[in-house]
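Render this sequence as a predicted structure.
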Amino acid sequence: MSTDIFQLDWIFIDTIIIILLILLLLGVKGYKLTHRWRFSFSNEAIEYTFYRKPPLKIDDQSISTSKWTLTRNIFLREESNKKPTIVILRTNYKKRLLYILTEGLSSYGFNVINLRLKIRLDKKDNQFDTTLITSIRRLISIIIDFFKEKDSAFNFNYTLLNYSKSSLSYTSILTDPKNCGMILINPKLNDENIKNYNNLFDSSHLNSQLFSIFSKRSIFIFNNKNLKRFLNLYNHQKEKKLNIITIKKANYSFNYYETILLGMIINLIENKLLNTKN
């Protein structure tokens, strides 16, 4: 007995087909976003030194660190040692954006140190801020000294590039004599960070050493809630004082806007931070 095709529920079948097509399109989109960048550096001049475990024993109960990497351009080594070292700090898993920025900065002639940081302190501890920043400053100093022992011309001055979920005391970092400035990428505007921003209002010199770069969007068409909250909290005068930069069409991961972000970072370091430091 043959089946009468006119008795089939074509609305249900069409719905299933549409859902499958949507899932396929989302899968292709996700694959393109996660696989559009290679896993090896394209610039043959880049030298990559990797330590899965710290080569030095660091006795510190407040923080621990793993996966030290130094990326540098072997053809521009003399020039690189004259520039401040770029220290990229992260507390989450490695982001593709940081991989891209590392290659771009080192190709341009910067020595780039990547650190993965794990904070052991309890945020409820009254000495959390003081203890944490002391530990981080000491850690950065130890790591830079380690690489300087291997290359005596290695520059001990550094610029901190922060793309982590944790809040750091901006004032404490910027008062480090070796620090040349700090650039935050999509900082999370929680209560701790609001306090950190507020502490900078008392010092115009420190204000000029901190820059925050936000994406206009978070994902898809949704606005970046951290940027929105920041603009709601501070008036235009304070916004200008705190050196806020917004990439209007970018989303939280800066996909397709990595080159613009890289150019902004290089421009800030060379034309803003170094001039202010001098």
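Summary. The first strand starts at residue 46 and ends at 51. The chain has ten helices and eight strands.
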